[in-house]
Amino acid sequence: MTRGTEIANKVAAFVRETVAPYERDPRCSAHGPSDELVHELRGLARTAGVLTPHILADGSHLTHRETAQVLRAAGLSPLGPLAVNVMAPDEGNMYLLGKAASPEQKARFLDPLVSGEARSAFFMTEPATDGGAGSDPSMMLTTAVQDGNHWVVNGRKAFITGADGARVGIVMAKAEEGATMFLVDLPDPAIRIERVLDTIDSSMPGGHAVVQITDLRVPADQMLGNPGEGFKLAQIRLAPARLTHCMRWLGSCQRAHEIATDYANRRHAFGKPLIDHEGVGFMLAENLIDLKQAELMIDWCADVLDTGALGTVESSMAKVAVSEALMRIADRCVQVMGGTGVTGDTIVEQVFREVRAFRIYDGPTEVHKWSLAKKVKRDWRDSQRPQES
């Protein structure tokens, strides 16, 4: 048994046996599970030896392929990634800090995340009403101006997952040198949550906030990397993060498929089990195909990342293929279960909502296709150039 499989099996057992019973806990709200519930679940994970399982005791990470196994197991419940501390945005922020932070920054900002004692937020997206950065980060309006040994940041951010209750913030702003990232302690009076948006998903603590940043003073030694490196650092974070989203939601859709399959075998109509009706049985068969294709796409992209390549093209391809496949799976599960599928009696309804949001988060399908189309054009142009003899 490989290291990844062994850890994944342990995580899967913990999520199925210990975490799943909490899915109807009243501390799960429209804006995500409460911090009290997260703290309780992480305590259980710590006792079970599965807290932050993708980062080893020596600080090294599992390979991306091994991480895929573990995060898929964590995703078997919407609460699983939170319980074992592999949920977005924390998982992606831990990865970025592990790659780019100084030793002093890691001790101050990364260690509390790895231990599961703190949550984090990534401040990049800006309100569309302001004309700020969304899918096009070059439109960033938030500014950073140097003032002696500090930087002063001003602007507004939107869809900031987990800002309410986070202790660690990564803020991107536009300096004279270009986009730049800063590490900040939260809460900070200069960062004010205007409102937490009402969205269709509900799995992330703190929800998604609109935030006003007014004269935030950040010491120069809390800059991540160098001035103007913000976009480069964002790609270090976002390429793997797109894939880890796929990993987690693949696990959730696997569980939804299990629930729908159980329902179709137990529920009878017109003289036989639902699964014996082709209309139902074929939907579940199509789920199997999409589940396997999503798994293979994730593993392929993980292998590319494990070679040390940045993998932006591959992660875009995986994000499109997997998110669209998972949407089909979740939709079929709801359809198989009929009225029960649109109730909160099972997690199928929530998985459907979460995956619908996932098709937009970390880049909508259409933006990734547009990026891939530009690559197709570049490759064609390169193929037309005369070859050197």
From TrEMBL:
Organism of origin is Sphingomonas hominis
Q: How does it assemble?
A: Homodimer.
Matching Gene3D superfamilies: Acyl-CoA dehydrogenase/oxidase, N-terminal domain, Butyryl-CoA Dehydrogenase, subunit A, domain 2, Butyryl-CoA Dehydrogenase, subunit A, domain 3
Could you tell me the keywords of this UniProt record?
Answer: FAD, Flavoprotein, Oxidoreductase
Q: Where is the Acyl-CoA oxidase/dehydrogenase middle domain?
A: 123-198
Every Acyl-CoA dehydrogenase/oxidase C-terminal domain range: 228-375
- Residue ranges of the Acyl-CoA dehydrogenase/oxidase N-terminal domain? 6-117
Q: Which domain of life is it from?
A: Bacteria
Q: Any keyword Phosphoprotein?
A: no
Known cofactor(s): FAD
This protein's name: Acyl-CoA dehydrogenase
Q: Does the keyword Secreted apply?
A: no
Concerning its family, UniProt says: Belongs to the acyl-CoA dehydrogenase family.
